[in-house]
Amino acid sequence: MSLSASVSVSVRSALLLLALVAAGCSSGSPPADARGAPESFAPLVRQVLPAVVNIAVTERVAANDQLGQLPPELRGTPFERQFRQRFRGRDEQVMGAGSGFVIDPSGIIVTNNHVVGHASRIVVALSDGSELPARVLGIDELTDIAVIKVDAPRRLPSVAFGDSSKVEVGDWILAAGNPFGLGGSVTAGIVSARGRNIGAGPFDDFIQLDAPINPGNSGGPVFDMAGEVVGVNTAIVSPSGGSVGIGFAIPSNLAARIVSQLRDRGHIDRGWLGVSVQDIEGAGVALAAVERAGPGAKAGLRAGDIVLMVNGDHTDSASALIRAIAAIQPGGDAHLTIRRAGRQIDVPVTVGRRPSSEAG
Which residues are catalytic? Predict the structure, then answer.
């Protein structure tokens, strides 16, 4: 064999080896539990979108409140006087829009409290374009959940809550709603983070999404790839007012519990200890203060106690302790494991009813 032939064979062998290596890198088996992107979201959209509704609200605003809404760009200009004269002594109607989803074919719809909580009139537009008046069954300001009802002439398409505890960072999700009043729209993305606290209230535990959601998406559902609702859109972070890829949804496990109570009773009763709490380094939550006549004081809790567990579950933050107590019906029992003066003791407490302005 000539030198040139030998070199040619060696080159072919090297190229074949490189090709095999490249093929191995590009087509190697993915992790056993990897979930790839769907080829199309269309089948999922066809399945769930008929249960998503658009919500239009009319809210009556007092003239004094309207004056307080003077646009900053009008202040100090000749238009400021015209604006104030226009609204002086009159009440005005303000229109708003949001989203929701049907959870019961009889016409039970879930949305946000901030969408319908102050509405004087609510109109729901179904996926077929028909419009129906709605009434509020119950609202909860602390979790921003509301339940409304339409009297439909037929059974409506509906969707079910899924298990948000199974949602993982990186999972695909589909968000649906009524952005900028444009009507039924869908966007896709992934779960960016879990357990987000954005300072909205004592029950912050949001799912963070990168699916674009905008004003008007509030109250709309977030679906997993099985078509179950794993979140309720409630907030965005945006310097411009539009989507920048950071949105937040109420986890379905929290929303479903609130919705069930609102349907049954129209309001939420939450447990309360009558204590002020604060996060500390290490395990547990510190009691900064204990109200003299509150349920905690009656059970023997003291300022400085460190709460380690509630009913056997570890408490790793003040918000987790508040949520754990709030989930107990007033009059129910809570068994607290606390650390006091270096000793670990159990304290049974009969929880009270949480006043609307209290935190713990």
Answer: 114, 144, 218
